[in-house]
Amino acid sequence: MDTIKRDPRKEFGKAVAELAETDERIVVLSADSGGSAGFKDFAEQHPEKYYEFGIMEQGITGIAAGLATTGKIPVFCAIAPFVTCRPYEMFRNDLGYMKQNVKIVGRNAGFTYSDLGATHHSLEDYAIMRMVPGAVVLAPQDVGEIRSAVKAMMDYNGPVYMRIGNGAIPDLKKEAAFIIGKGEILREGNDLTILSTGSITGEVLCAAALLEDQGISVMVIGLPTVSPIDCEIIKYAAEKTGRIMTVEEHYICGGLGGSVAEVIAQSCPVPLKIHGVPHVYATSGSYEELLRYYKLDAKGIAAVAKDFIA
Amino acid sequence: MERNKRLKLEVTAEKCRRNVLRMVESSGHGHLGGAFSCIDIVTALYFYKMKIRPEEPDWKERDRFLLSAGHKCMAQYAVLAEKGFFDKSVLDTYGKLGTKIPGHPDMHKLLGIEANTGALGHGLSIADGMALGLRGKAKVYVIMGDGELAEGSNWEAAAAAAHYHLDNLTVFVDFNGLQISGQVEKIMNYVPIDEHFKAFGWAVENIDGNSMEEIIDVLDRLPLQKGRPTAIVAHTIKAKGITFAENQAKYHFWSPKNGELQQAIEECEAKIGKIAQEIM
C-alpha cells in the first residue's frame, strides 16, 4: 500500500474530463454539485458539455434519461443519498427500465460526510441500487481504480451507479484495466477470506496485516463491482479458506454482505460474517471516529475477524 | 384550415377511438377516460404536425411524443396503429400475456414509444432532456394529465425547460378536470394551470382540446414565443365521445358491463359514418 493519498473526487472529475476530450457524447449534469464533484475545471473548459440545474435530483435523473435517448452519455454526480434515495423511482424507471446510458455517481458516500449526520451518510446505496435490473453498481477501492472504473463505466452501455468517497485515500495497487463484474485477490491467505468493496478496503488490508502478526492468515479479495457480483471468486474463496467475512462501509443488510450471502447460501455454504454498520441511523463524528465506533477501522475489523474465527 | 382536411383529421380521431374500444374488448378493461379526452390531440400530432417515419420508427431526426400520463397509452397505441406503425391485429393483444402494448407503455416492446411512463411526474423531465439533446434538430411534444400536476418533479422540469429556453418543447395539459377520486380542483388545485406555467417562464395558451380546429390552429403557431417552452392547457372532456360516460370520474378506468361496450362501439361507428359523409 502506498503512503501517498489522493483526493477521489478530484481524480474522478479529471478522469471524466479526460474521456470527454475525445468522446463528444459525454456531458456533465450538476445539481449545484459540480465543483465538489471535481468538475470545476471541466465547467470552465467545456461549458457546452456542462449543464447546471440547481438542486433538483429527481428532475436531473429524468433529464439525463432524455438526453441519453438522443445519444449523449450524461454523468450526474452529487452527494450520494441525494442521487440514490431521493430520485430512486427515476433511477428505476427512467434509467433502469428504459435501459438508458447514464452514469450516476454518489460522492461523499458511506460515512465520509461524517459529522454532517445521518441525512448525509449513504449506508444503503449498494442495497437499493443493485435492486434495479441491468444496473451496474461500482465501488472502486482507490483512486487508480476510480480512474479505470470511470473508463469502464463509459464503455458499458447502460445505467451505472458508482460510489466514491470524500477524503484522500491511499493507493492500494497499481492502476489496471477495470473489468466490470470481476473481483481481485489483493492478498493471499488460508484461514479466512475477507471480501471488501469501496475505499474501506484500505482498512481491510491493514487489518489483514495486523491479523498476520497474530498468526492468522487472511486472504483479501476486493470486489469493486457490487452488482453484478463475481460469483466465481466467492466460490473459490469459500472452497479455499472455508470461512468468509464481508466488510463494507454500508448497512449490514442488503449490500455487499447480502449479495455475497445470496451466493454462499445457494452455491457454497460456509460460515459467513457480515460486518458493516448496524441497521440504525448512525451517530455523527469525524470520519476516523465513526470508523472506530463501528469497528470499521483496521483494529476493529481485525477484532471482529478474530472473534469470528475463534 | 381547409374544411375537408379538418374533417379528415376528425374522422381519423374517431377511428382511433374505435381502435381504443377494440383494445378494451380484448382486455375487458382500460384507462378509457383519459385516452378519449386526449386522443384528438394525439391524432393531430401524428397525422398533422410531427416529423415522423412510421416505416422507420427509430429515425434519429424524428419528432418525439411522450405521454407523461402513461395510463392514457391506449390513445397512443390507437394512433400508432392507425398511422401504420404496427398491424392492427396487435390491438387484440391488449391486456394479454406478453403483449407489445401493455397497460403502460414500454419503449423496448413497441417501436414508436419513446419512454416508459406510467409512474406520474416523469415525462416532462425526460422530455426536457430530449429537447435539450435535439435542439435545432427535432421537436418534443408531451401530454400531461391534470391530476399529475400534483407531482412535484413536474415543477423541477418546468423550471429547467424555461431556464434552458427549450422552445422545441410543447406540453399539452389534458385538463379534463377529473382524476380517479373526483374533481382535480378539489383534490389538489393547480387552477389556474396556465398561470403556474407562465410563472415558470413558459408561453401559454388555453384551447378546447377536443376541437380539431383549435388544436390545429395552435399547432400552426408553435412555438408561441421564441426562446420559451410552450404549455397548452387543453380543456377537454373525460371519456369524450361516449355519451353515457362523458365527464364522469368513474370512467377513468373502465370495465364495461351490461352492453356498455356495444353501445360505445355503435356510437363511435355512427360518428365515423357521419363525419365521412360530410367530407366532400
Provide structural commentary.
Chain A folds into 2 domains: about 5-170, Thiamin diphosphate (ThDP)-binding fold, Pyr/PP domains (Rossmann fold); about 185-310, Rossmann fold, CATH 3.40.50. Helix content of chain A is about 40%, strand content about 20%. Chain A has helices at about 10-20, 40-45, 55-70, 80-85, 90-95, 125-130, 145-155, 200-215, 230-240, 255-265, 285-295, 300-310; strands at about 5, 25-30, 50, 75-80, 105, 135-140, 160-165, 170, 185, 190-195, 220, 225, 245-250, 270-275. In chain A, the strands form 3 sheets. In chain A, strands 3-2-4-5-7-6-12 form a 7-stranded mixed β-sheet, with helices on both faces. A 5-stranded mixed β-sheet of chain A has the order 9-11-10-13-14, sandwiched between helices. A two-stranded antiparallel ribbon of chain A has the order 1-8. In chain A, strand 2, helix 2 and strand 3 form a beta-alpha-beta unit. The mean pLDDT of chain A is about 95. Chain B is an alpha/beta fold and about 280 residues long. Chain B has one domain (about 5-280): Rossmann fold (3-Layer(aba) Sandwich), CATH 3.40.50. Chain B is built from 9 helices and 7 strands, in the order ααβααβαβββααβαβα. In chain B, strand 4 and strand 5 (about 180-185) form a beta hairpin. In chain B, helix 2 packs parallel to helix 3 (about 75-85). The radius of gyration of chain B is 17 Å and the shape is globular. Chains A and B meet through helix 3 and helix 5 of A and helix 4 and helix 5 of B.
